[in-house]
Amino acid sequence: MKAMTPARSFSRRTALARRVAWLAAGGLLAGCSPEAPTFKSTDIAGAAFAQNLRLTDHTGQVKTMVDFRGKAVVVFFGFTQCPDVCPTSMTTLAEVKRLMGDQGQRLQVLFITVDPERDTQPLLKEYMANFDPTFLALRPEPSEVKAVADSFKTYYRKAEGSTPTSYTMDHSAGKYVFDTEGRVRLFSSYGTEPGVIAEDILTLLKSVEA
């Protein structure tokens, strides 16, 4: 298979950006009856994730999924000392919100740490400030991490280092997208373009309104 040329890649990104802008402006195909939305991310509707999620955010407030009703929610698991995947993913989500335009106000990003031993509330607050002021970090107690990860069927593992505090964390790098009623709907793999994620979230928001 031939590699995509720069010109073709630019054309594809331009077309995607126009599509996202159209959706953000309120565009939706009209018809006699609403059609089932189609997504580029993996559709996992029907999964019972985060039903009992109750965690403290980086401001000290206890949050549940009910607190975010009316918004699309994206959940990402990570840790502040992650060298690349986590900051890249959070930067991607900041770009997703920007691409959504005014509809970005209806997006809530949640970063759940898998390393609460080192990720204190002050550190999480400082970390989230690098991306978007509306993004929230949630911190389970060390004894709660497994249950929270299991509730998303996500993977994490402590990889021991040369000293007790020099360990790192292996973890799944995908993003979970919930609709405005707190139901998980999509799974977006690591590396998915911001425009693709933005388009899917806008389509999801439109489908809820239809």
How is this structure best described in words?
With 210 residues, this protein is of the alpha+beta class. It has one domain (6-27, 40-209): Glutaredoxin. Helices cover 31% and strands 21% of the residues. The longest helix has 19 residues, at 6-24. The model is unreliable at 28-33 (pLDDT under 50).
> What's the overall geometry?
globular
Strand content: 15-25%
Average pLDDT confidence is 89
CATH class: Alpha Beta
Briefly say what this structure is.
This protein is α+β, with helices and mostly antiparallel strands and 210 residues long. The protein has helices at 6-24, 85-99, 121-128, 145-151, 194-209; strands at residues 42-43, 54-57, 62-64, 72-78, 107-113, 136-139, 156-159, 168-171, 175-178, 184-188.
Which features characterize this protein?
alpha+beta, 21% strand, single chain, 5 helices, 8-stranded mixed beta sheet, globular, two-stranded antiparallel ribbon, 210 residues, Glutaredoxin
Please describe the topology of this protein.
Layout: H1 6-24, E1 42-43, E2 54-57, E3 62-64, E4 72-78, H2 85-99, E5 107-113, H3 121-128, E6 136-139, H4 145-151, E7 156-159, E8 168-171, E9 175-178, E10 184-188, H5 194-209
Parallel strand pairs: 4-5, 5-6
Antiparallel strand pairs: 1-10, 2-3, 2-6, 4-9, 7-8, 9-10
Helix pairs in contact: 1-5, 2-5
